[in-house]
Fold each of these.
Amino acid sequence: MQPPAEHVHWLFATGVLLLGLLLLAEGIVGQEVWRRRAWRAYLWPSLLFGLGVLMWPVMVFYTNSTVHMLAHSAWAQTMMLAGAAELGLVRGKLRSELWKLAVPVSFAVSGAAFLIHEANPWLYSRSAFVHHACGWTLLVGSLFPLALAFKPGSLSFRAGYALVVVAVAVALYSSRDVAAIFGHLDPSAGVQHR
Amino acid sequence: MEASMTQYATELPRTRARRSARALTVLSLGPLTGLAGVVWGLLQPWRVTLFHPRGEGFWWLVVQPPLLVLLAGVVFHLLVARPLVRDLEEPEV
């Protein structure tokens, strides 16, 4: 009954896509309207925290190497940290504005984890490409939430932040077990079977 | 006095127009996402295994990217976008 690894990527991609849509909607209407309903204010921080919690079983059940396990653990921790910090800020329990840096730090650490645990070059296989793409998107994209922490009213920074999340979702949807990328598949990656 | 009334009279429709543009954008996010899923399903019909099942299990039948994208669009539209636009267009009480 355990889903194949590809399906886990796609399920997480759906969660990340929803996260991106929520961030986009919040950016469009503004925080004042977005937070008019209490449940909505907690929505995307809870989703981010939940994705972090769900990453733990992935770490346990889909471990094929130590570095994979460490990467999944880093994603779980950073997503939980960022989600919890945002929940604390929304609730008013956390007062320091510095907690807003939890999201950019989470993006940067997650991006670094993608890049560090991928030993192969971009065009080695689809999986390698997805790892590099997600890594650089998150690493460079962390500048948007970082800038937003200092300029919360900026629509362009908020939109950039949301679109980075959507881009990661798109990359995760393209993940396959063993597959070619732009016609390239290194023979040592295995035989393409889907 | 007259000048200020004229100012209000021109600002009100502008504000409404801006709000309706925002509402329209929010309302378009879900359908556009759903449409992306439908287009993906049309471009790669073999991904929607539900239409031509050949002994696949639950995961391969139900958890396919085009269906998930479609689902995300529908869920977002019904549960988030619609109530959000209602709040956007109604004055705060």
Amino acid sequence: MSESLVLLGIIIAASSGVPGLLLRRTSMSGQWVTTFLAVLGAALGLGGVVWFWATGESHPIVLQWSLPGAEFSVAIDGLSAIFLVPVFLISLLGNIYGLGYWKQTEHPQNGRKLRLFYGTMTAGMALLVIAQNSILFLFGWEIMALSAFFLVTTEDNEKEVRETGWIYLVATHVATLCLFALFAVLHAANGSFTLGPLNPETLRPGAATAIFVLALVGFGIKAGIMPLHVWLPSAHAMAPSHVSAMMSGVLIKMGIYGLVRITSFLPHPPREWGILLLGLGVASGVLGVAFAIGQHDLKRLLAYHSIENIGIIVMGLGLALIGRSLDRADWIILGLGGALLHIWNHALFKALLFLSAGSVIHAAHTREIDRLGGLAKVMPRTSLCFLVGAVAICGLPPLNGFVSEFLIYLGLFGTLMNGERRSFAGSSFAAPALALIGALAVACFVKVYGAVFLGTARSEHARHAHESPPSMLGPMGVLVACCFLIGLAPLLIAPILQEGVSAWAPNLKDAGPRLATLAPLEWITSMGLLLNLAVLLGGVVLWMRLGRGVVEEGVTWGCGYVAPTPRMQYTSSSFAQMLVGMFGWVLRPRTHQPKDLPLFPPETYFHSEVPDVVLDVVVLPTFRFGAWLFSWGRVFQHGNIQTYLLYIFLALIALLLWR
Amino acid sequence: MNQLLDPLLIVALALNFVTLGVSRIRGVINAVALQGILLGILPLFVHQDLGFRVILLVGVTIGLKGFVIPRFLVHALREATIQEEVKPLVNFMGSLLLGAVGTGLGIVFSYTLPLAEQHTNSLVVPASLSTVWAGFLMLTTRKRAIMQVLGYLLLENGIFMFGLLLLEATPFLVEIGILLDLFTGVFVMGIIIHHINREFGSTSTEHLTELKG
Amino acid sequence: METIFHDAVHVLLALGLPPLLLGLIAKTKALFAGRVGPSVLQPYYDLIKLVQKGSVFSTTTTWVFRAGPVVALVTAGIAVLLIPLADATAPLSFTGDFVLLAYLLGLGRFFTASAALDTGSPFEGMGAAREVTFACLAEPAFFLGMLVLAKLSGSLQLADMLGSSLASHWSADGESLVLVLLSWFIILLAENSRIPFDDPNTHLELTMIHEVMVLDHSGPAYGMILYGAALKLFVFGALVVRLAFPMTGGSPWLDWPIFVGGMLVVAVAIGVVESIMARLRLTHVPILLVAACLLSGFGIILLVR
């Protein structure tokens, strides 16, 4: 029953954009129909997942398919259920948000295309998560990847958007290529295209390593693990905000889903794989947030934070893998449980942040942080939503980010206890690294929140911003409520996480400790409530005290400067200057400043930026070198149709001769 | 090895980081001198029988490393009238972090060496590898000539620490030979610094590249 | 009944002692400088005065500016309930509570820095930028020290990590604990904006971190900030005292006076350090914090090698 509901949801979501194509481009009716269908599809999908958790039964659906080796077999298990929820929830909220943000009447050229591919992307993601057959998985994966390409290039009339689209397309096709190789090796090891655990007796160690490496590269590109993240920042910055929310919140998690699934198939992973994942997670986390600190484009900054959070998720996964190698059930439960919870949390607060950023961009018409400011006074509700998202992403109590990071901390500290002396205690050094990541995230979000919403407006656009309509505030409010709910009542989610971990490590299903006993989740609830109540109480006390005394208003004192101007405020680049300097060896910031100014200088400019090092130093030069290397091949590409026909004829003859 | 050896070696290790992180040259000279005195005292803890030979060695080492050579360097410093290191090739925080990485690797590496029974759990090999690494870092990344001399001194300290392991076996002559080597090296470097200063008016070794052709 | 008594004494001490620490630091610095200085009870008088004063709020600020002091005070207040004091128990204690401690202080820092940016003045922005930057280096040092304590005590609760078993570990693994103690003392100076990181007496914006963040606050809100800062000092001081004097005498009449004595010794030590050292150049501050990280890092390496 649950699978059928989900399949129905997928079909409706996929076709939700089609009626819009048939209706008129200049009216809103197409958008209303599409949004209604998309919400219906997402609700059905969510209903299916809830049914699965309520009944705990899984009835796989198997249909025949004419492709050789393929069959349409889908089933939901604990792990798929966890990944399905963000897919449908963010899609639902994003579609409602689009009603206000990307009105058909304001964007007649690309609105229908956007909604069509939004639906197909949702359908593709949901399909790949429940697929039990490699070919079906690849089918869903490609639908998702190509829909994402069309979504990223929604505004393809701009050159930057087109370039970003190409980078994204190349990256995703490299990933798909790795996946083709991966499934080929899996077929050789397993004998069929069914996705399932591999038999330890028949598995050669070389094959296992090949599977792991191919999965890491292929899924890592999609997930955005450093240094495979090069497509992520620009893609998330150039896409419309609700698309970025979907991509950042859900699309990159599909890479994590693949990694989690493949590692669950490998029976005896060596320790080194877990340590490698832990190390990559730490590197992605620290470098992701270091790059984020240097950005001054609002959405690019949020995109780099996605890389940081993927790093945290991969850290949890690495810990679970180490636990599996050493048979430590507590490390598996805390590590994977923390990673799975962080997947939900990140989907929630990153979508919240992108939707609020979208509201800001919609109102102020600029993405540049240093042209915004003072928006909390004109957009109070949006600023509150952004604040909740910022506090959540920094992992601060009482919100949800704290709970998942808490679980991962407990797991990492646990590697010190009764572990073998040298090799595992090394993994506990990831805990201070996680603390460093958290502190850097606080620095970055204080910068963003302060520069965008607080202070005074730095440009005309920001001064004339307006609050968002309810269709945009509604989804943000739902996400805020979810953040608070998971942060204050994590015990509700514990059984769901337990199901997910049991799907990954079936031997822990009935034996082994429970998440709720390993981590004091009830204390988190009580401390969170205590914190909220105390802050409310403190606020009431201050308010009453202020009511009793004299309260005056004036201009900012700031050490006695009588006439502060908006340009005197600290900008985001000045705020980040010390940290960018500390990480300068990897960030390589570039500044364009005037040289050799005369004594009475004319008006001039200063510009600083932190471009993506891996893209500029590694990837682009490599591709340029490749282009130069293969330039001899241009002889064959001269555009003459007759010669091309000749090529086809020659290939046909060669095939006939070969057979 | 004696229980007191490890804390002294930790202090010696800490002094490595002081030399890497401090920018005032006088401070670095004091740190290296203190390390030299500590190393001079160490043979007292390694040897079971304190004969005349050991006490002579201790005295000469403390005198040379702790007083004579630092006095000489302070004199050179005053003559060159500089106080601080200019921006080195790797900045101070980077030097500290590289030093930490090197020390960590030294600790890991010391496990792979086939050491004698009594040396396996002691900090002597990691401390000596760390000091050698710190000396190497200073030699290669600092621009002031005096800092490079101090790096050379650190290198010698590290080798001396390693030599503690072999103290029972090494003949007296080799120990005195090491100390003489050290003294000569510093003496020669002093002469070179004096000439650099006279020629270029500063003791930054960057100017040496003007000598080509 | 016993635990209620302990908790009551804990809360009273934690809420009443902190301003005395501030006063003692000021008195020590004054004596070093050859002055008589203000009375050790001066911070209490200051707090009472501030609560009764009026306030001026800038028109640039929003509710975040008023929320900053409240959140800073509340988070520091809950933090004092998490740390074990004299008898190695705390009113709120559970596995992993030190993570909550660090992140509560982080929440306080987030709101204080945001309140500073709310004023739209470059001075507050400067202080906020420095504060969050130095915290990035202090947090890993704190967690590295926690790794040492977790390894030694085998537990993840602060009450066990800083409990009476620590006394036996001093004799066996004293080197690691000395390194952690030094590192935590440096973090105490950094997080509470003492010399050599920040000068609490100066009013030159180029040298301030914490002082400049709260330039625009006045009246009861400023009193909340002052009291919150005192509570934060108490939290870090208690960690240092418990690490340095972990033994328990057995009876509460002996333990609490020893603990209070230890806190006063720490306050005098802070005053002495402030008097004999000068403030570090701003670019050299990260180097000292990295040194603190390295100290704790070597503490844990020594344990697990």
